[in-house]
Amino acid sequence: MHNPIDNSVLEYLKSLTLLCVEDNKTTQLIYNSIFEDLVKNIVYANNGEEGYQKFSNENIDLIISDYDMPVLNGIDMIKKIRESNKEIPIILVSAIQDVDVIVHALQLNVNNFLKKPIVAIEVMQAIANVTKLLIADNYLKIQREKKIKELEKKEKYNLYQEDLAFSKELNILRNDFYYQMIEGECNTLIDFFYKPLDILSGDSYSARKINEDIVFYFIVDGMGKGTLGIT
Fold this sequence. Notes:
The strands form two sheets. The chain has a five-stranded parallel beta sheet with strand order 2-1-3-4-5, with helices on both faces. The protein has a three-stranded antiparallel beta sheet with strand order 6-7-8. It has helices spanning 7-13, 25-35, 48-57, 74-84, 99-107, 120-183, and strands at residues 17-21, 41-45, 62-66, 90-94, 112-115, 204-209, 215-220, 227-230. The chain is α/β, with parallel strands linked by helices. The model is unreliable at 197-202 and 224-231 (pLDDT under 50). 48% of the residues lie in helices and 17% in strands. The protein folds into two domains: 7-145, 3-Layer(aba) Sandwich (Rossmann fold); 162-230.
């Protein structure tokens, strides 16, 4: 039998767990013969309620489900699954060609449809198609995480640069004023503990002694927030 699945998709499939929800034992055996060499794990459920429980309790990546089953049919099971997971790829299999069923399935974001009796090549093609969706979603997730890390790294670097610039400017201010104290006759030690609400990037600070009674403190805001002079 010709394998319609690309090698890259085949490789990705081998890392996935597939949930097969099917009440017919013969169909389960057919699924097993198709999927045993394609996916990492196959989890079987005999009805929709059991399928929902397996989905809730195990790490499932893909779902293929029959529509007409006892206890809970495929559509009702998918509805319950979609309440907590909107994205997991689902293939619905049915012998009933009912427009209402198909419309309801589309509203529940079912990704692919297969009709019974199943054909192995069609099943494999459907699995390949939904796996491509997983690959695309995984790629986008990796890109988003990469972008977030880059932004976090950039933000940390910017904060470091701001802290470094502020430290340098504060040191200049201290030295500038201390030198003037040394040159004069001053017995008072003054230090600066300036902690702005928002660090001013790219600014300059200085203190100038105007006369014996007045010292002028000068802050230049290079980011356009204004210039402050205090005497």
